[in-house]
């Protein structure tokens, strides 16, 4: 085994809120990692259930930080503030890591060098009657098992990739770009990924090393799925801010065009969703028609040559 100077400390941050029934499993999946040099920071975001009692069984093996309920972005940022590691990783309290997750990602980052800001892996997503991988959902099909992803910004400007549970980020990069946006309680991970995409090429691992599990009760994800307006409104804000950043940077124009296209699509989607939610039968019917048209336009775009595909290279070619 290499000494600690060759094994950078990884700080694993687990935000939790009323997840006493599942957070022990998440913690155990981190403690079972084959990578040895890590610390586990659990941020209890004002839980009112038995979460504090459940965390006591890990005394001496994890650090627990408690705060008033402030949302997932604030909880993760609190963990980042307390982290000692050179590398930062995140796990939601109802999800799991496979045992080699950190070992593989740290090895890749060491091989890639400090110019590579992060490494993202595939995630197996489990619903009650369905199982898919995050790369497949986001239409990512790298030909290499692992390597460098050279156009993350161009791809992420057009769709969402489940990100937080599967990423390891260099702490110096995370602090430089500002951490999570605490004004967001939804899509805060997508907003961070867009900012991070302005950095150098990312490392990636095609294999799923994380298991995402649908929460049965009380999750922000479930609430958002039931409320289209609640999903789209923050996305429009995020895209507008990202477009402003791109206009001030030297990022390729293709990325900016992708953001403009996605922003226009999101505004049309929001308009249709608001019409569907109205009290008028006629207006609701028009809204449903516009929603159907928008889905057809999206499907056509995905099949078009303008839909960006994932571009990857092996190490040493960049």
Structure notes:
This protein has 318 residues and is an alpha/beta fold. The protein folds into two domains: 6-222, Spore Coat Polysaccharide Biosynthesis Protein SpsA, Chain A (Alpha-Beta Complex), CATH 3.90.550.10; 227-302. The protein is built from twelve helices and eleven strands. The chain has helices at 23-31, 51-55, 72-82, 101-112, 134-137, 152-156, 171-177, 188-196, 220-225, 228-248, 253-276, 281-302, and strands at 10-16, 38-45, 63-67, 87-90, 96-97, 118-126, 131-133, 146-149, 167-170, 202-213, 312-313. Strands 1, 2, 3, 4, 5, 6, 7, 8, 9, 10 and 11 form an eleven-stranded mixed sheet that branches. Helix 10 packs antiparallel against helix 11 (253-276) and helix 11 (253-276) packs antiparallel against helix 12 (281-302). The longest helix is centred in the C-terminal third of the chain and has 24 residues, at 253-276. It is globular and about 60 Å long. It starts with 9 loop residues before the first strand and ends in a 5-residue tail after the last strand. Mean pLDDT is 92; it is low at 1-5.
Anisotropy-based shape: globular
Helix/strand-derived class?
Answer: alpha/beta
Q: SSE string, helix = H, strand = E?
A: EHEHEHEEHEEHEHEHHEHHHHE
Output the CATH homologous superfamily of the largest domain: Spore Coat Polysaccharide Biosynthesis Protein SpsA, Chain A
Distance between the termini: 30 Å
Tell me the domain tally.
2
Layout of SSEs?
Elements: E1 10-16, H1 23-31, E2 38-45, H2 51-55, E3 63-67, H3 72-82, E4 87-90, E5 96-97, H4 101-112, E6 118-126, E7 131-133, H5 134-137, E8 146-149, H6 152-156, E9 167-170, H7 171-177, H8 188-196, E10 202-213, H9 220-225, H10 228-248, H11 253-276, H12 281-302, E11 312-313
Parallel strand pairs: 1-2, 1-4, 2-3, 6-10
Antiparallel strand pairs: 4-9, 5-10, 6-7, 6-9, 8-10, 8-11
Helix pairs in contact: 10-11, 11-12
């Amino acid at each position: 085994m290499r000494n600690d100077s060759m094994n950078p400390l990884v700080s694993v941050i687990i935000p939790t809120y009323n997840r006493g029934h599942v957070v022990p499993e998440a913690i155990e999946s981190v403690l079972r990692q084959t990578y040895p040099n890590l610390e586990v920071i659990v941020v209890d975001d004002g839980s009112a259930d038995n979460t504090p009692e459940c965390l006591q069984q890990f005394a001496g093996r994890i650090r627990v930080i408690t705060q008033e309920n402030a949302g997932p972005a604030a909880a993760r940022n609190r963990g980042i503030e307390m982290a000692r590691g050179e590398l930062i990783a995140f796990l939601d309290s109802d999800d799991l890591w496979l045992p080699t997750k950190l070992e593989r990602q740290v090895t890749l980052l060491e091989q890639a060098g400090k110019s590579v800001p992060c490494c993202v892996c595939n995630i197996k997503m489990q619903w009650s009657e369905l199982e898919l991988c995050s790369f497949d959902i986001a239409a990512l099909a790298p030909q290499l098992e692992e390597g460098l992803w050279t156009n993350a910004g161009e791809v992420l400007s057009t769709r969402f990739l489940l990100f937080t549970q599967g990423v390891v980020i260099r702490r110096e990069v995370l602090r430089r770009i500002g951490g999570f946006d605490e004004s967001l309680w939804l899509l805060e991970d997508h907003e961070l990924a867009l900012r991070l995409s302005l950095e150098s090429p990312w490392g990636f691992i095609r294999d799923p090393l994380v298991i995402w599990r649908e929460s049965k009760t009380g999750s922000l994800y479930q609430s958002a799925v039931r409320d289209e307006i609640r999903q789209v409104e923050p996305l429009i804000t995020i895209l507008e801010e990202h477009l402003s950043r791109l206009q001030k940077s030297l990022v390729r124009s293709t990325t900016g065009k992708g953001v403009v296209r996605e922003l226009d699509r999101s505004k049309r989607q929001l308009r249709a969703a608001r019409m569907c939610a109205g009290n008028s039968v006629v207006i609701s019917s028009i809204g449903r028609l516009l929603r159907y048209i928008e889905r057809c336009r999206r499907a056509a775009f995905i099949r078009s040559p303008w839909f960006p595909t994932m571009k990857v290279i092996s190490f040493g070619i960049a």
